[in-house]
């Protein structure tokens, strides 16, 4: 790999980065294609740091990418892939080690990622790097609204009310794409979000946040009070449906340890995919090898093999 170098992702133009992501994911088990607008959306919403992310260049041509999201002491791998022609050369390992060390240099304590349970190439790589399985995440789609339980009503709320309710009552962490940092980025960027409260016996038993776009409902947050999930979850799901959402409701990465999960699964949704939610804990002094050199450098040339 004498001609392969690693460079920060902000050293290549957005169209080239977008094309690289699409080629790297061209044979992915879950179809993915982004345009430049979607790429900007991902970078902004998920706090993907292009300066700390890395792109592999082979003779000056982009052949691999690892995108790193940063929020305080937590980081997230927002996409890692190598184009089909560049695989089986250790580039995935090299890219991952590089961004992990950039995360360490920024004071990160935990690095998270999701990987499809069917991705037999990537899972062993992540395990070798020290990532450990935390839980399963399901990508689910409901074609029709469930029945609202008797005695439960819904009413409009505000985004801030939902976020505050979630901080008080959430019993499992949301994945990076839907956690509070992402929600606040959506609000900052002007996306229209709808907030709903579920009421039973005169008190709020659950709250949800969703958006409607491209003919479908996307569930972003749904939290219930202890013991109320069976009442709040179907009521909030039903309230989110709209006639214009002809594609139904999609819930990206619903954690298996979420109180809503068994209720949603009992509604027989279509499962588009399941993922492993994985975590790497970084400790002071831990080394992953040659990328421990003083940082940052604008270009990192890989040794010949």
TrEMBL record:
Region (Disordered) residue spans: 284-305
SUPFAM superfamilies: Acyl-CoA N-acyltransferases (Nat)
InterPro entries, A to Z: Acyl_CoA_acyltransferase, Bact_Acetyltransf, GNAT_dom
GO molecular function: acyltransferase activity, transferring groups other than amino-acyl groups
Pfam family, one: Acetyltransf_1
Sorted UniProt keywords: Acyltransferase, Transferase
Superkingdom as given in the UniProt entry: Bacteria
PROSITE patterns reported for this sequence: GNAT
Stretches with biased composition (Basic and acidic residues): 289-305
Annotated ranges, domain N-acetyltransferase: 4-155
Family annotation (CDD domains): NAT_SF
Protein name: GNAT family N-acetyltransferase
Species name: Eiseniibacteriota bacterium
């Amino acid at each position: 790999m004498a001609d392969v170098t690693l460079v920060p992702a902000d050293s290549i133009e957005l169209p080239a980065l977008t094309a690289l992501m699409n080629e790297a994911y061209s044979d992915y088990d879950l179809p993915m294609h982004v345009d430049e607008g979607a790429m900007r959306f991902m970078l902004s919403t998920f706090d993907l740091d292009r300066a700390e992310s890395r792109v592999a260049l082979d003779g000056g041509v982009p052949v691999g990418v690892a995108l790193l999201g940063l929020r305080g002491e937590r980081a997230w791998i927002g996409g890692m892939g190598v184009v089909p022609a560049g695989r089986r050369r250790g580039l995935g390992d090299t890219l991952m080690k590089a961004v992990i060390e950039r995360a360490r240099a920024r004071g990160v304590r935990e690095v998270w990622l999701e990987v499809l349970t069917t991705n037999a190439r990537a899972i062993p790589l992540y395990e070798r790097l020290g990532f450990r399985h935390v839980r399963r995440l399901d990508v689910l789609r409901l074609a029709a609204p469930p029945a609202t339980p008797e005695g439960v009503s819904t009413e409009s709320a505000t985004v801030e009310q939902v976020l505050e309710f979630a901080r008080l009552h959430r019993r499992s962490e949301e994945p990076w794409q839907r956690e509070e940092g992402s929600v606040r980025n959506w609000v900052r960027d002007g996306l229209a979000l709808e907030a709903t409260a579920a009421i039973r016996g005169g008190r709020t038993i659950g709250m949800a946040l969703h958006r409607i776009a491209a003919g479908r409902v996307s569930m972003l947050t749904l939290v219930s009070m202890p013991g109320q999930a069976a009442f709040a979850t179907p009521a909030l799901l039903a309230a989110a449906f709209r006639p214009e959402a002809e594609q139904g409701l999609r819930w990206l990465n619903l954690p298996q340890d979420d109180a809503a999960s068994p209720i949603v699964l009992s509604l027989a949704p279509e499962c588009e995919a399941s993922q492993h939610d994985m975590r790497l804990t970084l400790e002071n002094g831990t080394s992953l090898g040659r990328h421990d050199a003083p940082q940052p450098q604008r270009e990192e040339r890989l040794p010949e093999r």
